[in-house]
Design brief:
The protein has 327 residues and is an alpha+beta fold. It is built from 6 helices and 15 strands.
Length: 327
């Protein structure tokens, strides 16, 4: 898709010899255009909800909300959050980093749901290695561990899900996270969990002071400040300090698109998607025209041609909007 978009943009620009856009400039414009379209999905979803409330939205193939949800859910990610202090989880309890490139590998555009798993079942070290297995001859997994529980390799900070409790000493897990004998591990129960409600920083003090509204293990909450989240209550009976105890479902930012190329003998770049840093657009193909028009607007500003900018804006408004671009 990204090569098609670039060819379209260059074709429009070259028609009247308006100029040439370098690959680096195109990638910058593509990034901004994709972000504009991405942010419109959320505002358009709000418009669809309002249309449903006004009984002006259709059903079946005209169910725009369902179609738009499918687009948004392509960007939905569920990750375990990393604790603020691995070495002192009791001192800095209930504090976790929000999703980022250095922790979860994705930045969060919007956090939709936070779930806490306070019950750590057991911890020990593995004494044998087999792919997709946790083997501990000193353990007693039967009766205490259930399918769906989370296994964490504390040395490598990798996580897996229990698929099958084979016997007292062996667990069949979803990922090969134990490749060395003697790795420390612990298991977090997925059977006991509570969704945390987000509260404003301005309200948490008053909530904590009230006997009726104070956060508890039955009704936990969290606040967000800078790059950290703080779970409440902070007590000896509600301790969240380890990887695997806080799970976030969030909408990530789309990956920056990058048109990659090789340089031919004459200096002309030629599209090459085999490059390691190649990245296509992550938005649906039906919104390709929208991206083209937005990039043309940036190009018009860059080459100081008002006609190009006006053409992009006019076409963007003129084209029949798709389900993901309802105006």
């Amino acid at each position: 898709m990204i090569n098609s978009v670039r060819n379209t943009v260059l074709s429009v620009l070259n028609k009247n010899n308006y100029g040439y856009i370098s690959p680096s400039d195109f990638n910058l414009y593509a990034l901004q255009a994709q972000m504009e379209v991405y942010e419109e999905y959320f505002s358009n979803y709000n418009k669809v909800i309002n249309s449903e409330n006004n009984r002006t939205s259709g059903t079946d193939y005209a169910d725009i909300r369902k179609q738009l949800m499918e687009v948004l859910e392509q960007f939905s990610v569920t990750d375990f959050l990393h604790p603020f202090d691995y070495d002192n989880p009791d001192i800095n309890r209930n504090r976790f980093y929000l999703p980022s490139l250095t922790t979860t590998g994705n930045e969060a555009f919007m956090i939709n749901r936070i779930v806490g798993y306070p019950n750590v079942i057991t911890d020990s070290v593995n004494d044998s290695v087999l792919a997709n297995y946790l083997i501990d001859s000193t353990a007693s997994f039967v009766g205490s561990v259930n399918p769906g529980d989370f296994v964490v390799n504390w040395d490598t900070l990798q996580t897996a899900v229990v698929y099958t409790v084979v016997n007292n000493t062996d667990l069949f897990i979803s990922a090969d996270i134990f490749q060395n004998v003697g790795d420390s591990y612990y298991i977090v129960s997925a059977q006991q969990y509570k969704e945390l409600e987000k509260v404003n920083l301005s309200k948490i003090t008053m909530l904590n002071l009230s006997n009726l509204t104070a956060p508890s293990s039955l009704f936990p909450v969290f606040t967000q400040e800078d790059y950290l989240m703080q779970a409440y209550p902070i007590s000896s009976t509600y301790v969240l300090g380890k990887l695997g105890q806080i799970q976030a479902q969030y909408f990530r930012y789309p990956k920056p698109p990058k048109w990659t190329y090789i340089t031919l003998a004459g200096g002309e770049p030629s599209f090459d998607q085999s490059q390691l840093d190649y990245q296509d657009f992550e938005i649906p193909r039906e919104d390709e025209y929208k991206v083209c028009m937005k990039i043309l607007q940036y190009c018009g500003i860059s080459i100081r041609e008002a006609e190009v900018t006006q053409f992009g804006m006019a076409q963007e408004q003129h084209e029949q909007p798709t389900f993901s671009q309802q105006q």
